[in-house]
Protein backbone atom coordinates (compact mmCIF):
# COMPACT_ATOMS: atom_id res chain seq x y z
CA UNK A 1 0.00 0.00 0.00
CA UNK A 2 1.47 3.37 -0.97
CA UNK A 3 1.49 6.47 1.25
CA UNK A 4 -1.57 7.98 -0.37
CA UNK A 5 -3.60 4.78 0.04
CA UNK A 6 -2.47 4.40 3.64
CA UNK A 7 -3.51 7.96 4.45
CA UNK A 8 -6.84 7.46 2.72
CA UNK A 9 -7.46 4.28 4.65
CA UNK A 10 -6.52 5.82 7.97
CA UNK A 11 -8.79 8.81 7.44
CA UNK A 12 -11.46 6.76 5.65
CA UNK A 13 -11.61 9.44 2.99
CA UNK A 14 -13.24 7.59 0.14
CA UNK A 15 -12.42 10.30 -2.37
CA UNK A 16 -8.65 9.81 -2.12
CA UNK A 17 -8.33 6.11 -2.97
CA UNK A 18 -9.67 3.81 -5.64
CA UNK A 19 -12.02 1.14 -4.28
CA UNK A 20 -10.53 -2.32 -4.00
CA UNK A 21 -13.96 -3.91 -4.42
CA UNK A 22 -16.90 -2.09 -5.97
CA UNK A 23 -20.36 -3.56 -6.42
CA UNK A 24 -22.96 -1.72 -8.49
CA UNK A 25 -26.63 -2.54 -8.93
CA UNK A 26 -26.24 -6.17 -7.91
CA UNK A 27 -29.36 -8.27 -8.36
CA UNK A 28 -29.48 -11.93 -7.37
CA UNK A 29 -32.35 -14.32 -8.07
CA UNK A 30 -33.30 -17.68 -6.61
CA UNK A 31 -35.63 -19.05 -9.23
CA UNK A 32 -38.25 -16.38 -9.80
CA UNK A 33 -37.55 -14.67 -6.48
CA UNK A 34 -35.43 -11.51 -6.42
CA UNK A 35 -33.33 -11.77 -3.23
CA UNK A 36 -30.79 -8.97 -3.65
CA UNK A 37 -32.16 -5.79 -5.20
CA UNK A 38 -29.82 -3.27 -6.85
CA UNK A 39 -27.26 -3.43 -4.04
CA UNK A 40 -24.27 -1.10 -4.42
CA UNK A 41 -21.30 -0.66 -2.08
CA UNK A 42 -17.53 -0.12 -2.02
CA UNK A 43 -14.60 -1.38 0.01
CA UNK A 44 -11.32 0.52 0.07
CA UNK A 45 -7.81 -0.84 0.71
CA UNK A 46 -7.28 -1.79 4.34
CA UNK A 47 -10.90 -1.03 5.25
CA UNK A 48 -13.29 -3.23 7.23
CA UNK A 49 -16.89 -2.99 6.07
CA UNK A 50 -19.89 -4.69 7.63
CA UNK A 51 -23.15 -5.75 6.00
CA UNK A 52 -25.68 -5.62 8.81
CA UNK A 53 -29.19 -7.00 8.76
CA UNK A 54 -31.50 -9.67 10.14
CA UNK A 55 -31.58 -13.23 8.85
CA UNK A 56 -33.08 -13.64 5.40
CA UNK A 57 -32.19 -10.14 4.20
CA UNK A 58 -29.79 -11.20 1.43
CA UNK A 59 -26.42 -10.82 3.16
CA UNK A 60 -25.16 -14.38 2.68
CA UNK A 61 -26.54 -14.37 -0.85
CA UNK A 62 -24.49 -11.25 -1.55
CA UNK A 63 -21.25 -12.91 -0.42
CA UNK A 64 -21.97 -16.00 -2.50
CA UNK A 65 -22.58 -13.79 -5.52
CA UNK A 66 -19.29 -11.99 -4.94
CA UNK A 67 -17.47 -15.35 -4.96
CA UNK A 68 -19.21 -16.45 -8.16
CA UNK A 69 -21.13 -19.25 -6.46
CA UNK A 70 -24.50 -18.06 -7.78
CA UNK A 71 -25.18 -17.83 -11.48
CA UNK A 72 -28.44 -15.91 -11.67
CA UNK A 73 -26.96 -12.47 -11.02
CA UNK A 74 -26.83 -9.13 -12.78
CA UNK A 75 -24.88 -5.97 -12.06
CA UNK A 76 -21.24 -4.98 -11.93
CA UNK A 77 -18.48 -6.35 -9.67
CA UNK A 78 -15.07 -4.70 -9.97
CA UNK A 79 -12.06 -5.96 -8.03
CA UNK A 80 -8.70 -4.20 -8.02
CA UNK A 81 -9.81 -2.19 -11.04
CA UNK A 82 -10.90 -5.20 -13.10
CA UNK A 83 -14.46 -6.38 -13.85
CA UNK A 84 -14.84 -9.90 -12.45
CA UNK A 85 -18.55 -10.66 -12.76
CA UNK A 86 -17.69 -13.20 -15.49
CA UNK A 87 -14.96 -14.91 -13.41
CA UNK A 88 -15.61 -18.39 -11.99
CA UNK A 89 -14.96 -18.86 -8.24
CA UNK A 90 -11.42 -20.20 -8.66
CA UNK A 91 -10.29 -17.14 -10.64
CA UNK A 92 -11.83 -14.81 -8.07
CA UNK A 93 -9.86 -16.63 -5.38
CA UNK A 94 -6.65 -16.36 -7.40
CA UNK A 95 -7.31 -12.66 -7.94
CA UNK A 96 -7.17 -12.18 -4.18
CA UNK A 97 -10.63 -12.76 -2.70
CA UNK A 98 -10.72 -14.99 0.38
CA UNK A 99 -14.03 -16.43 1.59
CA UNK A 100 -15.11 -17.93 4.91
CA UNK A 101 -18.67 -19.25 4.47
CA UNK A 102 -21.34 -19.40 7.11
CA UNK A 103 -21.04 -22.69 8.97
CA UNK A 104 -17.26 -22.80 8.33
CA UNK A 105 -17.37 -25.79 5.91
CA UNK A 106 -14.00 -27.20 6.90
CA UNK A 107 -13.23 -30.78 5.84
CA UNK A 108 -13.93 -32.89 8.96
CA UNK A 109 -12.06 -36.01 7.78
CA UNK A 110 -8.92 -34.10 6.85
CA UNK A 111 -6.33 -32.95 9.35
CA UNK A 112 -5.87 -29.32 10.30
CA UNK A 113 -2.72 -29.23 8.18
CA UNK A 114 -4.50 -30.73 5.17
CA UNK A 115 -7.32 -28.21 5.52
CA UNK A 116 -4.80 -25.38 5.51
CA UNK A 117 -2.96 -26.74 2.48
CA UNK A 118 -6.22 -26.86 0.53
CA UNK A 119 -6.24 -23.09 0.80
CA UNK A 120 -2.97 -23.07 -1.18
CA UNK A 121 -4.20 -25.19 -4.10
CA UNK A 122 -4.11 -22.22 -6.47
CA UNK A 123 -0.48 -21.42 -5.59
CA UNK A 124 2.53 -22.89 -7.47
CA UNK A 125 3.66 -26.20 -5.94
CA UNK A 126 6.92 -24.76 -4.60
CA UNK A 127 4.97 -22.07 -2.72
CA UNK A 128 2.49 -24.40 -1.02
CA UNK A 129 3.72 -23.75 2.49
CA UNK A 130 1.47 -22.33 5.19
CA UNK A 131 2.75 -18.81 5.99
CA UNK A 132 4.09 -18.27 9.49
CA UNK A 133 1.79 -15.31 10.10
CA UNK A 134 -1.21 -17.68 10.07
CA UNK A 135 0.19 -19.56 13.06
CA UNK A 136 0.94 -16.26 14.76
CA UNK A 137 -2.69 -15.27 14.38
CA UNK A 138 -4.00 -18.65 15.55
CA UNK A 139 -1.30 -20.40 17.66
CA UNK A 140 -3.72 -23.23 18.49
CA UNK A 141 -3.49 -24.54 14.94
CA UNK A 142 0.20 -25.38 15.17
CA UNK A 143 -0.50 -27.69 18.12
CA UNK A 144 -3.37 -29.41 16.29
CA UNK A 145 -1.86 -29.90 12.81
CA UNK A 146 -2.37 -33.68 12.84
CA UNK A 147 -5.81 -33.56 14.44
CA UNK A 148 -8.87 -34.13 12.27
CA UNK A 149 -10.85 -31.00 11.54
CA UNK A 150 -14.01 -32.68 12.74
CA UNK A 151 -12.48 -33.23 16.17
CA UNK A 152 -12.07 -29.50 16.81
CA UNK A 153 -14.56 -27.43 18.77
CA UNK A 154 -16.81 -25.02 16.89
CA UNK A 155 -14.62 -22.05 17.79
CA UNK A 156 -11.47 -23.89 16.73
CA UNK A 157 -13.10 -24.85 13.43
CA UNK A 158 -13.94 -21.20 12.83
CA UNK A 159 -10.33 -20.24 13.44
CA UNK A 160 -9.26 -22.97 11.02
CA UNK A 161 -11.72 -21.75 8.38
CA UNK A 162 -10.40 -18.19 8.64
CA UNK A 163 -6.80 -19.39 8.56
CA UNK A 164 -7.52 -21.53 5.47
CA UNK A 165 -8.79 -18.42 3.68
CA UNK A 166 -5.73 -16.42 4.76
CA UNK A 167 -2.98 -18.82 3.69
CA UNK A 168 -3.21 -17.54 0.09
CA UNK A 169 -2.68 -13.96 1.37
CA UNK A 170 -5.90 -12.45 -0.06
CA UNK A 171 -6.41 -8.75 -0.65
CA UNK A 172 -9.96 -8.89 0.73
CA UNK A 173 -11.53 -11.38 3.14
CA UNK A 174 -15.26 -12.15 3.02
CA UNK A 175 -16.51 -13.35 6.41
CA UNK A 176 -20.03 -14.72 6.81
CA UNK A 177 -21.28 -14.72 10.43
CA UNK A 178 -17.91 -15.61 12.04
CA UNK A 179 -19.35 -15.33 15.57
CA UNK A 180 -22.27 -17.71 15.01
CA UNK A 181 -22.31 -20.39 17.72
CA UNK A 182 -18.88 -19.38 19.02
CA UNK A 183 -17.98 -18.98 22.70
CA UNK A 184 -17.11 -15.43 23.85
CA UNK A 185 -13.39 -16.11 24.45
CA UNK A 186 -12.94 -17.35 20.87
CA UNK A 187 -14.90 -14.37 19.53
CA UNK A 188 -12.36 -12.09 21.19
CA UNK A 189 -9.49 -14.03 19.60
CA UNK A 190 -11.12 -13.84 16.18
CA UNK A 191 -11.70 -10.11 16.57
CA UNK A 192 -8.04 -9.59 17.49
CA UNK A 193 -6.88 -11.68 14.52
CA UNK A 194 -9.06 -9.78 12.04
CA UNK A 195 -7.87 -6.46 13.45
CA UNK A 196 -4.26 -7.59 13.01
CA UNK A 197 -4.62 -8.68 9.39
CA UNK A 198 -6.25 -5.36 8.58
CA UNK A 199 -3.65 -3.25 10.35
CA UNK A 200 -0.49 -5.30 9.76
CA UNK A 201 -1.15 -6.83 6.34
CA UNK A 202 -3.50 -4.30 4.79
CA UNK A 203 -6.22 -6.89 4.15
CA UNK A 204 -9.66 -5.44 3.53
CA UNK A 205 -12.58 -7.18 5.22
CA UNK A 206 -16.23 -7.55 4.26
CA UNK A 207 -18.09 -8.85 7.27
CA UNK A 208 -21.65 -10.20 7.36
CA UNK A 209 -22.82 -10.15 10.95
CA UNK A 210 -25.81 -9.84 13.28
CA UNK A 211 -23.78 -9.53 16.49
CA UNK A 212 -23.93 -5.75 16.75
CA UNK A 213 -21.10 -5.17 19.23
CA UNK A 214 -18.66 -7.33 17.25
CA UNK A 215 -19.48 -5.54 14.00
CA UNK A 216 -19.31 -2.13 15.62
CA UNK A 217 -15.90 -2.74 17.18
CA UNK A 218 -14.39 -4.20 14.01
CA UNK A 219 -15.84 -2.29 11.07
CA UNK A 220 -14.89 1.17 9.83
CA UNK A 221 -17.97 1.50 7.66
CA UNK A 222 -21.36 -0.19 7.62
CA UNK A 223 -24.20 -0.91 5.22
CA UNK A 224 -27.59 -1.89 6.61
CA UNK A 225 -29.57 -4.23 4.38
CA UNK A 226 -33.27 -5.00 4.61
CA UNK A 227 -35.19 -7.24 2.22
CA UNK A 228 -32.23 -7.27 -0.16
CA UNK A 229 -31.97 -3.49 -0.41
CA UNK A 230 -29.63 -0.95 1.15
CA UNK A 231 -31.47 1.28 3.63
CA UNK A 232 -28.64 2.94 5.57
CA UNK A 233 -24.87 3.39 5.44
CA UNK A 234 -22.13 5.41 7.09
CA UNK A 235 -19.07 5.46 9.29
CA UNK A 236 -19.48 3.00 12.15
CA UNK A 237 -18.23 5.62 14.60
CA UNK A 238 -21.11 7.90 13.59
CA UNK A 239 -23.94 5.39 13.27
CA UNK A 240 -27.28 5.95 14.96
CA UNK A 241 -27.10 2.89 17.22
CA UNK A 242 -30.72 2.96 18.28
CA UNK A 243 -31.97 3.17 14.71
CA UNK A 244 -29.63 0.43 13.49
CA UNK A 245 -30.55 -1.88 16.40
CA UNK A 246 -34.24 -1.39 15.62
CA UNK A 247 -33.65 -2.92 12.19
CA UNK A 248 -31.69 -5.84 13.66
CA UNK A 249 -34.25 -6.87 16.25
CA UNK A 250 -36.79 -9.55 15.33
UniProtKB/TrEMBL annotation:
Alphabetized UniProt keyword annotations: Amino-acid transport, ATP-binding, Nucleotide-binding, Transport
Residues in ABC transporter domain copies: 21-250
UniProt keyword annotation of Transit peptide present: no
InterPro entries for the chain: AAA+_ATPase, ABC_transporter-like_ATP-bd, ABC_transptr_urea_ATP-bd_UrtE, BCAA_Transport_ATP-bd_LivF, P-loop_NTPase
GO molecular function: ATP binding
A Pfam short name: ABC_tran
PROSITE patterns, per database record: ABC_TRANSPORTER_2 (PS50893)
Family from the record: Belongs to the ABC transporter superfamily.
PANTHER family: HIGH-AFFINITY BRANCHED-CHAIN AMINO ACID TRANSPORT ATP-BINDING PROTEIN (PTHR43820:SF5), HIGH-AFFINITY BRANCHED-CHAIN AMINO ACID TRANSPORT ATP-BINDING PROTEIN LIVF (PTHR43820)
Record-given protein name: Urea ABC transporter ATP-binding subunit UrtE
Higher taxonomy: Bacteria, Bacillati, Cyanobacteriota, Cyanophyceae, Thermostichales
